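#struct-help
A.M.: can someone run this one for me? Single chain, 264 residues.
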Amino acid sequence: MSLFKDLFRRLRLHWGWVAAQYAGIALLILIGLAWTRLPDKCVWQVALSLLLPLLLAIAALALQAGSLRSLAEDNGKRVRPLVGAATLLVWVALFWVCWAMLDWCNDRIPQWAGYLNSQVSAHARATFFTYEHIQRWLSLTEWLLRWVVVPAKILPYAMASVQFGLRLPWRRVLRLLRNWRWWAGVVVAALVGVLLPSHFFNGTPSGTVHAQVWHVVLKLAATYLLAVGSWVLLLGWVAVLFGREQTSAENQLAPAPAGLPDDK
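D.P.: on it. Structure tokens below:
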């Protein structure tokens, strides 16, 4: 079976989790917006304001862990769902650390661009290494790290952790990280789910107020559909490639002597 046939087979078999991604993420966003409007006049309102973010985080973790487990192949050696979701927290925390570091770098891009521009010759500053060019290159680098490199590095480990907990099959994950198909899938998902929607709001508003409202609603809906669709396809893609890495390794390995551990 080809990779794409396997991908859409998994999505079709687990269509409930695909629908849960669309409905669940939208519900989490709406509840999060409602949380920002909660009053704090009473004790129960303050308690709800403190408890609701925790409940939202647990629901988001359960949604993603369940989707990853459903799309992956069950070889009979998986840990319990609760253990898999708990170990997924490690990679979620690492992702947010990387995200915070990139936010810090993004805030300093103008300063760094000015410094680098000042270090080259006057001719280079006026032609190739201009402030605008350097700032654009740094912004592009930050965008690639945020939307391509960090997700591509962390998501295979997250896929493995929800299945095997802390007993990660390191060799399978490393083989997946060296697979160009995985990186190509992440690049396509970033272009379709992030870069393309960012251009929806670049134009100058025109027409009546009613028409502009509908334009914004349609753009937001298209942005949501593209972003969540790209995320779901990426989850399916990492599940397919992760399963293929196991099959490929089993086909290439010669029969191991008795007593040797299997390659997880």
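A.M.: thanks! Residues 249-264 have pLDDT under 50 and may be disordered.
D.P.: also worth noting: The CA atoms of residues 7 and 236 lie 6 Å apart.
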